[in-house]
């Protein structure tokens, strides 16, 4: 029998020692890398270089108090946000490996009528990734001509809110055009109103042709006539060397956060073909069509140049339908049905936020919590009480991709830039989903698909590939009707998920400071409840009754 001699006691102890050293080294290196990553993203320290003059901070508090009627005692905290030059284009969500509230006394209780100026300044700072480049493309809108039908009164409403929003996405932000053109059709405007609008648009740096209807007409007819105006004005621009590939037929509350992103999304289409592409924003932009969900754009439609030339020749207003039904239908539905019937083309859809194929849709989610980079926003003032022109101001510092970008912090706080800050005491669920990498299409063969200009390979969602998580759940997704193609190629969707309650601070103010920094104020109203009394019998509000302000001052990273 052959016997193997075992290891000596010394060798055993030595091997244990070496193993322990190796494990300790791995743990040390992992901890160091984790801390380095945390340090690279966010820093929590006292910064003696407080932003802003103390008197200016007091004046800013007074401004907020006057506008929003803050409680006499208000909770106040302020952060400096230094932006590191890192790309946000790949994902709409960034995990921040640090706490948003590193200390329990971050928020100070301020006497609004007699504030201590030293408590208002931003003495804490964090570093967060911003845009990959501080300079946007010089003329990102050069391939677009947009048409809007509205009234002078609507544009002038709420201190010219619509015009202020147009300035954000139809100019370079410095009073010059970004290349995009506009045809503005006013509803029965006077000669003086047309002249005023022309002057204001010119001063804003918006290249626009202003016209007016002669009489009050239906919205459907106005938008049908608007396409004719786009055809004529587009030909005029082409004659002077400013040809436009795409015409956007949009309602006055449509807001494009980034024409660069719109151009990138449209680049997967062949603009020389006849194309109708609807861009619905939220769930209400879709409608039930039997057992399917359908949309024709919900207020925003992109048309190729060839289709713009064809539509004015079509009898779109003579569709066989009862007059009452015709009046009730939305203009995009009539336009979409018309091109399907008379031009026999597919209607494409690029969802901006909500998609009918999103099986993870949760009705309690706000649109900005769906974790997708917004292609456009529609009627956000009415739907979410957000002044998009003001909210978009932060992109002057951090680039277009940072607007509505989600920053998720380790202590279950979430910053949706330009919209809200939320705290989730019971925890955030950090869910991640892969890009869609798919096109949902019904009742179209391969040849028909390519004949109408989309140059991506088509995959039928009904071909249930068990090895592909993007198609294995197709049966669980809502159906779309025939001649409707939903295109969601490479769109990241990372919805915000949490357990239990949430506390929300909403953006109420944004202003550009001297030097180019942007200051945002987010407000959470106090909860009304039974007041306690102090020793003298005077009502003493509990902390949850106090209004709360969080100020973020966004700055470009500088060499220190």
TrEMBL record:
It is found in: Membrane. The keyword Glycosyltransferase applies. Residues 425-488, 525-545 are annotated as: Disordered. Residues 430-441, 449-459 have a biased composition (Basic residues). GO terms for molecular function: glycosyltransferase activity. Residues 531-543 have a biased composition (Basic and acidic residues). One of its GO terms (cellular component) is membrane. Residues 241-364 form the Fringe-like glycosyltransferase domain. It is a single-pass type II membrane protein. This is Fringe-like glycosyltransferase domain-containing protein. Keywords: Glycosyltransferase, Membrane, Signal-anchor, Transferase, Transmembrane, Transmembrane helix. InterPro entries: Fringe-like_glycosylTrfase.
């Amino acid at each position: 029998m052959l016997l193997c001699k075992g290891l000596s006691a010394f060798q055993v102890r030595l091997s244990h020692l070496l193993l322990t050293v190796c494990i300790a080294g791995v743990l040390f290196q992992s901890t160091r890398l984790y801390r380095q990553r945390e340090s690279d993203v966010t820093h929590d320290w006292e910064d003696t270089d407080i932003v802003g003059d103390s008197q200016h901070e007091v004046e800013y508090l007074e401004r907020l108090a006057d506008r929003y009627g803050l409680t006499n005692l208000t909770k106040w905290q302020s952060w400096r946000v230094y932006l590191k030059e890192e790309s946000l284009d790949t994902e709409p969500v960034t995990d921040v490996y640090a706490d948003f509230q590193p200390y329990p006394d971050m928020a100070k209780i301020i006497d609004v009528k007699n504030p201590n100026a030293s408590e208002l300044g931003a003495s804490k700072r964090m570093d967060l990734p911003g845009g990959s480049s501080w300079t946007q493309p010089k003329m990102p809108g050069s391939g677009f001509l947009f048409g809007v039908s509205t009234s002078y009164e609507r544009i002038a409403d709420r201190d010219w809110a619509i015009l202020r929003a147009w300035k954000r996405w139809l100019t370079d932000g410095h009073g010059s055009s970004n290349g995009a053109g506009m045809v503005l059709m006013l509803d029965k405007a006077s000669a003086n109103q047309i002249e005023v609008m022309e002057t204001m648009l010119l001063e804003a740096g918006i290249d626009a042709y202003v016209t007016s209807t002669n009489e009050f007409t239906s919205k459907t007819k106005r938008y049908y006539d608007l396409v004719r105006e786009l055809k004529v004005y587009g030909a005029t621009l082409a004659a002077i060397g400013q040809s436009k590939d795409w015409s956007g037929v949009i309602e006055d509350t449509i807001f494009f956060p980034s024409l660069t992103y719109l151009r990138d999304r449209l680049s997967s289409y062949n603009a020389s073909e006849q194309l109708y592409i609807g861009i619905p924003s939220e769930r209400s932009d879709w409608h039930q069509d039997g057992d399917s969900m359908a949309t024709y754009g919900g207020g925003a439609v992109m048309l190729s140049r060839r289709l713009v030339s064809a539509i004015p020749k079509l009898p779109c207003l003579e569709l066989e339908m009862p007059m009452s039904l015709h009046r009730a239908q939305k203009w995009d539905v009539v336009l979409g049905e018309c091109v399907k019937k008379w031009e026999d083309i597919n209607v494409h859809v690029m969802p901006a936020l909500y998609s009918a194929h999103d099986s993870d849709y949760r009705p309690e989610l706000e649109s900005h919590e769906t974790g997708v980079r917004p292609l456009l926003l529609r009627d956000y003032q009415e739907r979410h009480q957000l002044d998009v022109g003001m909210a978009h101001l932060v992109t002057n510092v951090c680039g277009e991709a940072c607007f509505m970008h989600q920053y998720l912090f380790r202590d279950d706080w979430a910053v949706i830039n330009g919209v809200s800050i939320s705290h989730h005491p019971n925890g955030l669920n950090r869910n991640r989903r892969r890009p869609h990498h798919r096109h949902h299409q019904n009742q179209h063969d391969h040849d028909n698909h390519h004949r109408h200009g989309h140059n991506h390979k088509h995959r039928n969602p009904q071909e249930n590939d068990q090895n592909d998580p993007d198609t294995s759940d197709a049966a669980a997704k809502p159906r779309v009707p025939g001649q409707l193609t939903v295109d969601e190629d490479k769109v990241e969707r990372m919805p915000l998920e949490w357990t239990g309650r949430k506390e929300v601070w909403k953006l109420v103010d944004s202003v550009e400071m001297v030097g180019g920094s942007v200051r945002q104020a987010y407000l959470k109203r106090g909860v009304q409840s039974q007041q306690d009394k102090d020793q003298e019998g005077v009502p003493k509000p509990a902390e949850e009754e106090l209004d709360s302000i969080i100020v973020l001052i966004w700055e470009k990273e500088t060499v220190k």
